[in-house]
Amino acid sequence: MADIAQSTSARRDWTGWVKTPWTVSVVLLIAVAVLDPGNVREVVGFALAALAHTARYILFAVLLLAYLKATGAEVLVARAFEGRETRMILLAALFGGLAPFCSCEVIPFIAGLLALGAPLSAVMAFWLSSPLIDPPTLLITAGALGWPFAIGKAVAAVGLGLFGGFAIRALKGHGAFAAPLKVYKPSGCCGGTKVEDPKPHWAFWQEEPRRAVFKAEFVSNGLFLLKWLALAYVLEALLVNYVPADLIAQAVGGEGVVPIAVAALVGMPAYLNSYVAPPLLAGLMEQGMSAGAAMAFMVAGAISSIPAMAAVWSLVKPQVFFTYLGLGIAGAIVSGILFQMV
């Protein structure tokens, strides 16, 4: 019986290891090496470069979260959100347009905010608006598509953030999203060392228990984010190399509401970041793609590309994940229709 139990445990450990994001990433890269060996260096290089670029955001977010947990400052963060949900939704939607994060880079900050107990409504407002626009993207969009399109995208970003934030708030009023996080939890919530003190201790390194909390938080949260974002960027590299974005976008030409809706649905899984999209869409609009379809395609792609969805799925429960996608697609379609009308 003991042998059987050990065999079962070993089998579970093996299958659990196979299902990890690390293993999936390695298997995908091995498949590229076998099926297309001449392109493996480019795929790996793209994924590593993207991950290295995001690493600074991951490091900052993980250090900040670990520091807040070790000092006990999450108590102050939680208090800052009490009774101010409407204001936080407004500020999150506005500030999201200033944050230079794509849909994958924003994940570490969203994870930290949710882990610290920030309202999902305010987090969702920032989550939806942040990947859409930032100062560099605004200038690039204006240069390729004109200032009306750039301003329209900025307005869409803020509007979508507000729409998502207040929609989540309304749904929460009916008992939804009580516990949005899936497995991303600070180590103290998983049985690790936790400091119980209502008063923050900013110089946490002076106390051994707080140093232990900092180390545990840094390691567990850092590894969690790293493994899922590594998989996200491997998927992104495969999309860039094997699914031409222009072929996807060319399927959504024409006028009317239907092409706008199709553009949002096609743009949802496509890789088309905010720096590549404007020049490509400018050429497609010259070939007959409507301005509304271009706006819907750009908005949907920025919010819910496959790399972003992989990271989001790892972070929150299915109910929140599908709500995020639904808000993103609906917002993209509405943005396209309104921009077409204007």
From TrEMBL:
<feature type="transmembrane region" description="Helical">
    <location>
        <begin position="138"/>
        <end position="163"/>
    </location>
</feature>
<feature type="transmembrane region" description="Helical">
    <location>
        <begin position="218"/>
        <end position="235"/>
    </location>
</feature>
<keyword id="KW-0472">Membrane</keyword>
<dbReference type="InterPro" id="IPR052923">
    <property type="entry name" value="UPF0718"/>
</dbReference>
<feature type="transmembrane region" description="Helical">
    <location>
        <begin position="247"/>
        <end position="272"/>
    </location>
</feature>
<feature type="transmembrane region" description="Helical">
    <location>
        <begin position="321"/>
        <end position="339"/>
    </location>
</feature>
<dbReference type="Pfam" id="PF03773">
    <property type="entry name" value="ArsP_1"/>
</dbReference>
<dbReference type="InterPro" id="IPR005524">
    <property type="entry name" value="DUF318"/>
</dbReference>
<keyword id="KW-0812">Transmembrane</keyword>
<feature type="transmembrane region" description="Helical">
    <location>
        <begin position="46"/>
        <end position="68"/>
    </location>
</feature>
<keyword id="KW-1003">Cell membrane</keyword>
<feature type="transmembrane region" description="Helical">
    <location>
        <begin position="21"/>
        <end position="40"/>
    </location>
</feature>
<comment type="similarity">
    <text>Belongs to the UPF0718 family.</text>
</comment>
<keyword id="KW-1133">Transmembrane helix</keyword>
<protein>
    <submittedName>
        <fullName>Permease</fullName>
    </submittedName>
</protein>
<feature type="transmembrane region" description="Helical">
    <location>
        <begin position="293"/>
        <end position="315"/>
    </location>
</feature>
<feature type="transmembrane region" description="Helical">
    <location>
        <begin position="89"/>
        <end position="118"/>
    </location>
</feature>
